[in-house]
Amino acid sequence: MEKNVSEKIRNLITAAKPELLKISPQSAGEKPGPNAWSKKEIIGHLIDSAANNHQRFVRATQNLAGDFPAYNQNRWVEVQCYNEMSWPELVEFFSLYNRHLCRVMDVLPEDVLNNPCNIGKEDPVTLEFVIKDYLRHLRQHLEQILGPLA
Length: 150
Fold this sequence. Notes:
The chain is mainly alpha-helical. The chain has six helices and two strands. It has helices at residues 2-21, 25-28, 39-60, 73-80, 87-107, 127-146, and strands spanning 116-117, 125-126. Helix 1 runs antiparallel to helix 5 (87-107), helix 3 packs across helix 4 and helix 3 (39-60) packs parallel to helix 5. The longest helix has 22 residues, at 39-60. The model has no long low-confidence stretch (mean pLDDT 92).
């Protein structure tokens, strides 16, 4: 299962990266509204999501991801000041971190996929659910920036 998801993520990143780099740094930093994220902040949020899920994936192999702290996405984006970062560097980091996450997915033992992970909900979900949901979340935000993806 996880190798199929990781391959889809790799393909998504490979297709999205050149399209993201076509966006001007100025445009990437523009906020569509006072409480809306810029494209830079959306990519930053996806980096944060990768970081949080990286922890879940590794900890789930040890059955240590069932009681994870909540994730305040707006505060994470605010604290890290993604809008002040270089757009090409942000896109590169996003790409590399997701490639690393795919490598982690590729080496996860099959027998850990039912281990519990807490993603800020009342009840933990399985690692398998978290992996599949990560792909959905990634696609959703990339489409928010780039429009429909194949």
